[in-house]
Every structure is written in C-alpha cells, then in structure tokens.
Amino acid sequence: MKRIYPDKDFCIGCCLCEMACLAAHSKGNDLILAYNEERAEGLLSRKRVIENCDVCVAISCRHCEEPECVPVCISGALTKDEETGITVYDADKCVGCWTCIMACPYGAIQRDKYNSKIIKCDLCAGRENGPACVEACPNRALKYEER
C-alpha cells in the first residue's frame, strides 16, 4: 500500500503541507477561505510540522500495517480496512477518550479542540492526485509511495 513518508533532510518547515491539507478538507477546496473562515469554524489540518532546532518534519497518520491505535479504540471508531490498508476513522462512533492519541507511536493523531474528538490523515480519500500535502511540498520532503 502507498503511504506518506516524510524526509526531514528536505523539509524546510514552510508548512505548505498543512495549508494544502486545510484546503483539501475544506468545503470549497479554497485555501484562502479555508484559512480565514473555515478554520475559525473548526477546520484543522490533519498534518503537523514539528520543528526542533534546525530539524523539521511533517507528521501525519502512517496507516500502519498493524496500527496500535485500532485495538485500543473502545468505541470502534478506528478500524483497519483490509482491502485498502487505510486506518479509517469514523467520527460518529468516536467518544473522545483519546486513547488512540496515547497509543500512536508517531504522535500522528491529534485532539480536535473544537469537538473533543480526534483528527487524523485520511490520505485525502477520493482525491485523484493523491494526498494534497505531497503535491504541495516544494522540496519534495513528502513522498507518497509503496516501500
């Protein structure tokens, strides 16, 4: 299965991946409206850029072969799609216990501060060109490939 792999050697911390994620998950797929208006309504990027001294890296769900978040999810909101390999999140089932956040070894699952649930990468499901963050990265620090 294809996954997003970050490369800290090429990441410059521009956060364009975060902006592309916002736009891709917005109502109108418009970056300016997503950033200025929808963000205030609760739209969050599923990608985070972490910076420590001179090292930057973009973090998002790795859709692990054997995700540690799935078995600890008490409500069944996180499942592994055996056909696609994607770790799927169903917000309607989520009870906001955040056990998955603690279980994720990559720190890729975030708390949604607007509704006490979580947000995580969905690999831009349904998008023809693959994940928006990969397409937007100017240094190609994000790779969408099978390894």
Q: What strand order characterises the main sheet?
A: 1-8
Q: Which assembly state applies to the chains in this document?
A: single chain
How many E-type strands? 8
What percent of the residues sit in helical stretches (DSSP H or I)? 10-25%
Mean pLDDT across all amino acids: 92
Largest sheet: number of strands, sense, barrel closure: 2 strands, antiparallel
Give the CA-CA distance, first to last residue: 8 Å
Please write the string of helix (H) and strand (E) elements.
EHHEEHEEHEEHE
Radius of gyration: 15 Å
- Alpha-beta classification: alpha+beta
Our estimate of the beta-strand percent is: 15-25%
Overall form: globular
Summed up, the helix count is 5
Low-confidence stretches: none
Describe the 3D structure.
The chain contains five helices and eight strands; from the N terminus they run βααββαββαββαβ. The protein is α+β, with helices and mostly antiparallel strands. The strands form four sheets. It has a two-stranded antiparallel sheet with strand order 1-8. Strands 2-3 form a two-stranded antiparallel ribbon. α1 (16-24) crosses α2. The longest helix has 9 residues, at 16-24.
